[in-house]
């Protein structure tokens, strides 16, 4: 009933984006915080290029960019610093070029956002003096605000990364949170240990007291001016600890058909999201949002003398607990960008990982009914490796917080309940055998379109509906397998899944149909065997035959949707290209460090070797 209820809400109050009040925010400081645990150089390249684009698209004296790395491999950590220096060179190069244009009053060659927020600050300075005395230091200063710091501990995973960044900004460089073995057992870190390995970037952040931290994942894009819009909303709502922008799924023409379907699906259901957030008066926290440092520290982390530690140390879905206490404000008119999963296989891996997080949440939501039995089983299975943990401070969930917090759990539990429904359906006599399933399909697939379909998108709605039938009809079975593996991973604590990036590389480097069959052949075999048994022994089992048919062709659906919508153009140029607005800077490995070329090929500052 959740989809039809949300549809009614959307029809009643409208699904348009709500524009929030804004105020002047030119004195607020912010750290664009990317968080990374790198397993390969490709992950580092992707994350740091994304951070570069976010930083340059929102450049101002009050904006810094900080990658908090939990990477363990020494060679990868060194590579992160190497790539940081390359991007610092690109920042210096681009700003020097724009500063030179500014000195010549060539404003057309300057990015409009940086002209307003950076160069206009020097419009009263003599241009000759500006070029010879100011420009080099300005470029150097902004380049140094593109930073990488390495965290000592992995406690609390990503959540711990940005928590420690906030504490470092407040002037705390030694650990005091999550250090108590009475609550965290062997998972506790040592009190007084360094939060980050010593570096110039750590010293640059220490005691800066950033007002806000924009928490981001390695693949989260930040559109131009997005940071300024978020800060304006934050300035008008200073009591809010989290400002949650919408997360817009986007892809390129050369991305897979599956990625485009996911993008269409989000766009179709966006009005329902806007309506529900407006109706509840608060938002979920998606793990990517603007956090007010002082409010967050006071309510989620605590102080050295009075620790709060509201997020469980072993939980994966940390955002649920943060949202419960800080009750995020939804800023749907501002968006962050995120790429969808490559295909069904990588989507399924991501869903399995999220399901594991939901199982952990259930252990905390229902401590006696689920938590105690699960921990007892874990202790029996893991033996001496079992680590008993407790939550120091519990969060109280109101109705809105509960509805949001349990949303993913409801979707997860729906899969085995659907399977149970199918089994009941084929085992009892019904006067109107297919009336119930037709009603359910109408309420879930068709009725929501009443609130989202219009003349402009009806073709996409039809395409998404067809894709949903092929993708989600097998979910009663695939979802049960996913839940079983998630529970198994929580109990055994030594289950290793194939990394999502490795699967993506496999699909890109081989035939997608062969790779799809490699990962999903078990479902096709199961569907074939069960289909034969159903035909032989279970009369009138049309519903389960439809499910088994879609399960059987799942590898084919995955292979087709793994194909690119457009063929990518090929290039033999191995130089690194940084795109920034309408300009591109091409920098080859031979030119770095030490030589920085402008867009017209001239050497700007040969021998600027500090990067």
From TrEMBL:
Record keywords, A-Z: Membrane, Transmembrane, Transmembrane helix
Membrane-spanning intervals of the chain: 434-451, 520-538, 544-565
Name recorded for this polypeptide: Chitin synthase
């Amino acid at each position: 009933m959740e989809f039809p209820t949300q549809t009614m809400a959307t029809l009643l109050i409208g699904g348009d984006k709500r524009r929030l009040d804004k105020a002047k925010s030119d004195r607020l400081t912010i750290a664009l915080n990317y968080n990374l645990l790198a397993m390969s150089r490709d992950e580092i390249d992707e994350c740091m290029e994304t951070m570069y684009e976010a930083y340059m698209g929102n450049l101002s004296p009050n904006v810094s960019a900080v990658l908090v790395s939990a990477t363990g491999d020494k060679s990868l950590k060194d590579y992160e610093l190497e790539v940081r220096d390359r991007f610092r060179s690109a920042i210096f190069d681009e700003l020097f070029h724009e500063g030179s244009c500014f000195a010549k009053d060539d404003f057309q060659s300057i990015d409009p956002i940086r002209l307003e927020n950076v160069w206009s600050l020097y419009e009263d300075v003599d241009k000759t003096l500006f070029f010879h005395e100011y420009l080099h230091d300005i470029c150097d200063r902004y380049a140094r605000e593109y930073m990488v710091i390495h965290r000592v501990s992995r406690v609390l995973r990503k959540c711990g990364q940005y928590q420690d960044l906030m504490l470092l900004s407040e002037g705390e460089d030694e650990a005091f949170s999550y250090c108590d073995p009475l609550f965290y057992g062997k998972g506790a870190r040592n009190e007084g240990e360094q939060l980050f390995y010593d570096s110039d970037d750590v010293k640059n952040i220490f005691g800066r007291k950033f007002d806000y931290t924009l928490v981001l994942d390695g693949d989260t894009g930040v559109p131009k001016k997005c940071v300024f819009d978020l800060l304006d909303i934050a300035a008008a709502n200073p009591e809010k600890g989290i400002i949650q922008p919408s997360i817009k799924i986007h892809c390129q023409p050369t991305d897979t058909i599956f990625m485009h379907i996911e993008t269409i699906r989000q766009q179709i259901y966006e009005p329902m999201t806007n309506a529900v957030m407006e109706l509840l008066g608060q938002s979920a926290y998606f793990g990517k949002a603007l956090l007010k440092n002082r409010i967050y520290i006071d309510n989620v982390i605590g102080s050295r003398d009075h620790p709060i530690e509201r997020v469980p140390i072993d939980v994966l879905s940390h955002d649920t607990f943060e949202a419960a206490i800080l009750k995020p404000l939804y800023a749907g008119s501002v968006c962050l960008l995120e790429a969808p999963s490559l295909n069904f296989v990588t989507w399924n891996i991501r869903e399995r990982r999220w399901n594991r997080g939901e199982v952990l949440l259930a252990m905390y939501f229902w401590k006696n009914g689920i938590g105690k039995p699960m921990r007892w089983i874990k202790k029996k299975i893991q033996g001496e490796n079992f680590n008993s943990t407790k939550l120091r401070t519990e969060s109280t969930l109101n109705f809105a917080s509960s509805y949001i917090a349990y949303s993913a759990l409801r979707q997860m539990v729906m899969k085995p309940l659907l399977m149970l429904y199918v089994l009941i359906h084929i085992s009892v006599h019904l006067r109107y055998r297919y009336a119930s399933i037709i009603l359910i399909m109408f309420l879930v697939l068709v009725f929501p379109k009443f609130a989202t379909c219009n003349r402009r998108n009806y073709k996409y709605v039809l395409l998404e509906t067809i894709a949903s039938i092929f993708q989600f009809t097998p979910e009663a079975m695939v979802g049960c397998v996913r839940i079983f593996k998630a529970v198994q991973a929580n109990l055994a604590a030594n289950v290793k899944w194939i990394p999502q990036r490795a699967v993506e590389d496999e699909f890109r480097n081989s035939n997608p149909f062969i790779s799809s069959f490699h990962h999903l052949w078990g479902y096709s075999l199961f569907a074939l065997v069960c289909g034969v048994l159903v035909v032989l022994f279970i009369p009138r089992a049309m519903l389960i035959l439809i499910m088994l048919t879609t399960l059987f062709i799942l590898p084919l659906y995955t292979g087709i949707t793994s194909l690119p919508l457009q063929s990518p153009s090929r290039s033999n140029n191995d130089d690194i290209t940084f795109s920034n607005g309408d300009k591109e800077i091409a920098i080859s490995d031979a030119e770095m460090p030490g030589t920085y070329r402008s867009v017209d090929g001239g050497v700007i500052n040969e021998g600027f070797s500090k990067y």
